[in-house]
Amino acid sequence: MGLKIIVENDRSELSVHEFNAGLITAGRAPDNDLVLPERNVSRHHFQLELLDKRIVIEDRGSYNASFVNGKEIAGKVEIAVGDIIAVGDYSIYLDQDDEEEGGASLSREIDASPKIAETDLLMAKNGVIGGRVFAVKGAETVIGSHAGADVYLCRPDIPDVYAKIIFDGNIFLLIRGVRDKDHPLIVNGMKIESIDLRHGDEVQVADFLFDYIEKGQEYNPYQYLIAADEERRRRLREDLDEKKIRSLRDEDEVTEVTKRAEKTRQVVRSRRSLLILLLLSAAILLGVTILAKSGYLPIDLPAFFQSLF
């Protein structure tokens, strides 16, 4: 089962992207499957998961939120072909082919041969991000749950900045980003505050495991990609079967989210209208006062203001 994504920007320019993977990430950062480069899109904005012709969207903690058919989504929501995703200045349309029941096998979509690292990397070894590689470059690489993190871990129990990798011109130094015992930083089985990273080091962040790969070294993410896809599909199937993921067609669920968002918008609109009314009233009273004092408006100002108040 393939998914075709049609992206329309604010200049009405269209681009078409086709995917066969079961997990598609989208955002401004170049490590996403679908890259949306405008500044009003978060680095890691949303993701789509596919299973048995079903599509599930999840916002990844973005600044400007993700919308489907004009409604802001919260958590995971099941959507369908024909729904319109709005992200920043983009409108995103979905199309799906029916060539294969149950989704394409990831093992047939990726190259199982070893790779050579073109820059220093962190390679995830477990969880739903297993097999993904994250470039370690520049002065600072942030690991955490913040949507702008370079190594993005989408989980509410993980701090925004769990750890950082700092490059001082000679070495890559891994340091803790938080100072509480519930979030230790572990390298090669030992808790650390900071460490000079070397090729082959195993880094543990919460329960995520990474291998540190130096530039020019060989690595192979194949087995981790396959294991991650199987784990993701299992979890998604359980959540769908147990109805832990609501459908956009579930009006009761969607209405609650929509009501909260609409209530907030109404409050903002009311305050804005009141402010505009006060400013207009003040401008009118100021104008009347100036005209009266200049003799252009023959009225008794004290009597006029007394009649108003």
Q: Can you put this structure into words, describing what you see?
A:
The chain has 309 residues and is of the alpha+beta class. It has three helices and 25 strands. It has helices at 222-241, 251-294, 301-308, and strands at residues 3-8, 14-19, 23-27, 34-35, 46-51, 54-59, 67-68, 71-72, 76-79, 84-87, 90-96, 115-116, 121-124, 133-135, 140-144, 151-152, 163-167, 172-176, 185-187, 190-192, 194-196, 202-205, 208-213, 218-219, 246-247. The strands form five sheets. Strands 2-1-11-10-7-8 form a six-stranded antiparallel β-sheet. Residues 100-104 and 251-255 have low confidence and may be disordered.
Concise overview:
The protein is an alpha+beta fold and 309 residues long. It is built from three helices and 25 strands.
List keywords for this structure.
alpha+beta, six-stranded mixed beta sheet, elongated
What's the topology here?
Layout: E1 3-8, E2 14-19, E3 23-27, E4 34-35, E5 46-51, E6 54-59, E7 67-68, E8 71-72, E9 76-79, E10 84-87, E11 90-96, E12 115-116, E13 121-124, E14 133-135, E15 140-144, E16 151-152, E17 163-167, E18 172-176, E19 185-187, E20 190-192, E21 194-196, E22 202-205, E23 208-213, E24 218-219, H1 222-241, E25 246-247, H2 251-294, H3 301-308
Parallel strand pairs: 3-4, 9-25, 15-16
Antiparallel strand pairs: 1-2, 1-11, 3-5, 5-6, 6-9, 7-8, 7-10, 10-11, 12-24, 13-14, 13-23, 15-17, 17-18, 18-21, 19-20, 19-22, 22-23
